[in-house]
Design a protein that fits this description.
By secondary structure, this protein is of the alpha+beta class. The chain is built from 11 helices and 18 strands. It has a 5-stranded antiparallel beta sheet with strand order 1-2-8-4-5, with helices on both faces. Strands 10, 11, 13, 14 and 17 form a 5-stranded antiparallel beta sheet that branches. Strands 7-6-3-9 form a 4-stranded mixed beta sheet. The longest helix has 30 residues, at 29-58. It is globular and about 75 Å long.
């Protein structure tokens, strides 16, 4: 399939164009509108990323607050229907999070040895929302290790005792640690592994004096997700974020174009200070951005564009800023396809919406379990909330660690009963309880085999039964 690429016209990048802003009459309102559309598509993931990290690491009054910058936070519990803060909560891999501020110096990250049959990963996401690096079972193995996480201005060499240097294009990096949970009784083992995750400044690791602290940042308060989609205050936040997102060689002309309407210069941008016609041009550009985006979302909803196409490194996504925007909208911080795949089932095999008023079976034929080197799971979410489903057996998913307790079919395949009521005592081991109303199933394949990546293996569809 041909990728959808946002084509951004080049500009001169000259000092004259860099000095322009929206108040410069040489930039017409039509040009402002067009550039604002491009800036919105380009900047949406970065602004949404900033909103989340502000709540995680900066706003201590937020219900989502985790820890200060450069301090690890582990959350080890089995997600239940009581967990309502985050949509589609993951009950497979309890999270550890780290908001890294690398302006003063790099961080040295320590991971413990993890038993060979347990999957874990550390995903590093830069301020562009590119997946810049991985540590874990797939990439570095389950042995203990030390990794230096460095920002764009650090020019040092790998210190003794460090296994690898991870270099980021931005000073602010989010690290997401996922540690496989085999089941509720395994939670203390996960906690022990999480206790072995460490983060320390390079100077402390080397036993040297710390460098001067980075300048204090006057963080702007981000918009909520709804306003971010419709208010031109978005451009004020984007202007702030771009201070901490260095211009890459491949984007010099693009960033100069944004600067020509006042975004990303050394002067603070304030949309409210512009004349009414220019403010309207920004508003129209925002609307144009969504009009360009909506056909892509329709393709995603139909399965014509899949999650594997929306997440990855700069090398993978390149200048496909519309896909990068789609990644943020549909599930920001998604993994590279090589790390995880996420088949989503909203409909049954006939194309009808999944609903707990009906009964379904979900069957893996003999030899057709999801091909993974890590593990797989199928999780139930009630809609429209995308939350876990309360049920009499407190089961929210079926996953590969459960296979010894599941009953295989006579031919060696596995049939799961997806319905609201128990299918009966003889089938209850394979029951995935559903809500009374609409639901979706999300299948997760961690460290998928090539057969899943290249499409040789395809996830089956739920089938409605009488």
């Amino acid at each position: 399939m041909t990728a959808l690429v946002v084509t951004l016209p080049a500009c001169s990048g000259s000092k004259e164009s860099d000095d322009k802003n929206a108040n410069d009459k040489s930039v017409s309102t039509a040009e402002i509108r067009d550039i604002a559309k491009q800036a919105y598509i380009y900047g949406y993931p970065m602004v949404d990323n900033y909103r989340i990290q502000y709540s995680y690491f900066q706003d201590e009054q937020s219900s989502q607050y985790r820890s200060p910058w450069n301090v690890l936070h582990s959350d080890a519990h089995v997600a239940t229907p009581a967990d309502t803060a985050v949509q589609t909560p993951n009950s497979d891999t309890p999270y550890t999070t780290l908001g890294a501020d690398l302006r003063a110096e790099p961080l040295v990250l320590t991971v413990p040895e993890v038993e060979s049959n347990r999957y874990y990963s550390v995903q590093f996401i830069d301020a562009y929302t590119y997946n810049m690096a991985y540590v874990g079972s797939r990439t570095t193995g389950n042995k203990a290790g030390k990794y230096l996480l460095a920002g764009p201005d650090w020019k040092g060499e790998k210190p003794a005792g460090v296994d690898q240097v991870l270099r980021s294009e931005t000073d602010f990096v989010l690290a997401l640690y996922r540690t496989q949970l085999f089941g509720p009784d395994d939670i203390d083992n996960v906690k022990a592994i999480q206790a072995g995750y460490k983060a320390e400044p390079l100077s402390k690791f080397l036993g040297k004096s710390a460098p001067a602290a980075a300048a204090t940042i006057d963080f702007v308060v981000p918009q909520n997700p709804q306003d971010q989609r419709k208010s031109t205050q978005f451009f004020n936040t984007l202007d702030f974020v771009l201070q901490y997102v260095p211009v890459q060689e491949s984007e010099k002309d693009l960033r100069a174009k944004f600067a020509s309407i006042g975004i990303g210069t050394d002067k603070k941008f304030d949309i409210s200070a512009l004349p009414a016609d220019q403010q309207q041009a920004f508003q129209d550009g925002l609307t144009d951005a969504w009009n360009e985006y909506n056909p892509l979302q329709a393709k995603i909803d139909k399965g014509e564009v899949v999650s594997a196409q929306l997440f990855g490194s700069r090398q993978m996504l390149g200048n496909n800023y519309l896909y990068r925007m789609a990644g943020a909208i549909n599930g920001i911080y998604g993994n590279d396809q090589a790390e995880a795949m996420y088949p989503i089932f909203r409909q049954d095999s006939s194309g009808a919406t999944l609903d707990g008023a009906n009964k379904y079976v979900y069957r893996f034929a003999p030899g057709q379990l999801p091909p993974v080197k890590g593990f797989w799971s199928i999780t139930m979410y009630r809609m429209p909330e995308s939350l876990l489903v309360a049920n009499p057996i407190n089961r929210y998913l079926i996953n590969s660690p459960m296979l010894p307790d599941l009953k295989p079919d006579a031919d060696g395949g596995y049939t799961f009963y997806v319905q609201q009521e128990s299918p009966g005592a003889d089938k209850e081991s394979n029951w995935l309880p559903a809500p009374a109303g609409p639901f979706v199933l999300i299948e997760r394949l961690y460290w998928p085999d090539e057969a899943a990546i290249n499409g040789t293996w395809k996830a089956p569809l739920p089938q409605k039964v009488a």
